[in-house]
Amino acid sequence: MRKSIRAVCGCTLAVVAGQAVGQLSHPLFPQPWEAGADPIVACNLPEQFVPRSLWNANLWPSGIVHYEFDPAVTAQNRSRTRIAMNEIETFCGVRFVPRTTEVAYVYVQNGTGNNSFVGRTGGRQVLNMVSWSSRYIIIHEFMHALGIWHEQQRNDRETFVTIVTANIQAGFGGNFTIRNTATPFGAFDFESVMLYDDCSFSTCCPAGSTCGCSLSCATILAQPAFAGQQNLMGNRSYMSQGDKDGLVSRYGAPMDDSFEENDGLTGAVALPIRTPVELRLIDAGDFFTMPIAVAGAISAELSAGEWAGTNVTLALLSPTNAVLRSAQPTDPDGDGVFVATVSTTGAAGTYKLRVTKTQPWGGDYTLTANGTCDDVDFNNNGVFPEDQDVVDFFSVLAGASCGACNDIDFNNNLVFPEDADVTAFINTLAGGGCP
Ligand SMILES: [Zn+2]
């Protein structure tokens, strides 16, 4: 529950383009000019939009936010960013999509502080990150990009908190300026990731030191009626309910995958065999059926991409829904793509696949169902069946290199080469056997 901010409350020296060298900046919070650009587009919001946050009007149409990484951003930090994006996407109708040629997009780069424009500027808008290891600071900056100001800048804040001007470091008062042009609604949210820590920019936190925040040092004091919430301020450990409600008020409910009806075993939909399907998991789990016509091996692979391994599990279920095999994605070759495979030999019937998320947030994944055997286009030249498929099959069986052809585990039972592979190939070539 308690924020983890204060323990690392040392101040750092920031050198920022356009700023005087040597100004102090809170290491975990934005520069004073964080929200310096304030491109407000006139927009009459419908009555039903009831944000619990402090919103600009310049939102992203349809919730689609294009983004691009600066080449210097490491693979690890890209992955961290993608996970933060996934978490936002899980709770509201926003999609973060890699930019191709779009004019309006968020350009994510390494910075000396964390900062972002507020809302959509209509062009290339820089988002600077330095606190890459904190998912909720990344989320904080992207919530700025989505149009949200700091909670302490609401024009109704005085009911809830007092800003202690005397404790604010010289030159940093701008972080506490009320934004009358933005729209607050609902109760002030002490738990919001958009609310500063109660000692942010405090004079009690001199450069280069670690500090403990006492009430006498605080720059934000809860009003007596809310004193019990003093220690909630500065939460960077989870998105509050108010953060989620605010996002939904502007961007709508989360977007699920294209198989809306596959959220339960009873509504499981058929997965096409040997066709990778790109999916999106928002609810607790996705369910699919894999009907096979003949006895044999079936398997399925899940590729989780940047939605890293421990976030999801893949299970193969029997026709009676018993779990036959389950697996968590792993990244054995270290290329950032996590893969899980489940397989079994079984009788004909309708098997099921279950993809379950193991974290509160969802993400995108690719699922491929393998049938009981490969197709007869063994050499994958698009022409089949042809004599060359047969020639190539037996050549590879005899030890020749495969190139673009299928592997010789033709029946996909993970045992090869074996007589059954040859039999299955010939049977399928003759027109039967393979679903
Ligand atoms: Zn901020």
Task: Walk me through this protein's architecture.
With about 425 residues, this protein is of the alpha+beta class. The chain has 3 domains: about 250 residues, 3-Layer(aba) Sandwich (Collagenase (Catalytic Domain)), CATH 3.40.390.10; about 110 residues, Jelly Rolls (Sandwich), CATH 2.60.120; about 60 residues. The protein contains 5 helices and 20 strands. A hairpin with a 7-residue loop joins strand 7 and strand 8. Helix 1 crosses helix 2. The longest helix has 17 residues. The radius of gyration is 27 Å and the shape is elongated. The chain starts with 11 loop residues before the first strand and ends in a 6-residue tail after the last helix. The N terminus is likely disordered. Bound molecules: zinc ion. The site of zinc ion has 5 residues, from helix 2.
Strand content: 15-25%
Element pattern in H and E: EEEEHEEEEHEEEHEEEEEEEEEHH
Give the CA-CA distance, first to last residue: 53 Å
The general outline is: elongated
Number of strands: 20
Q: For the largest beta sheet, what order do the strands appear in spatially? A: 5-4-6-8-7
Count of all domains: 3
Structural class based on helices, strands and sheet pairing: alpha+beta
Task: Please tell me the overall pLDDT.
Answer: 76
CATH topology of the largest domain: Collagenase (Catalytic Domain)
Q: How many separate helices?
A: 5
Outline the low-pLDDT stretches: 1-52
Q: Give the CATH architecture of the largest domain.
A: 3-Layer(aba) Sandwich
Described by strand count, sense and barrel closure, the largest sheet is:
5 strands, mixed
Query: What value does the Rg take, in angstroms?
Result: 27 Å
CATH homology group of the largest domain: Collagenase (Catalytic Domain)
Proportion of helical residues: 10-25%
CATH class category name of the largest domain: Alpha Beta
Which compounds are bound in this model? Answer: zinc ion
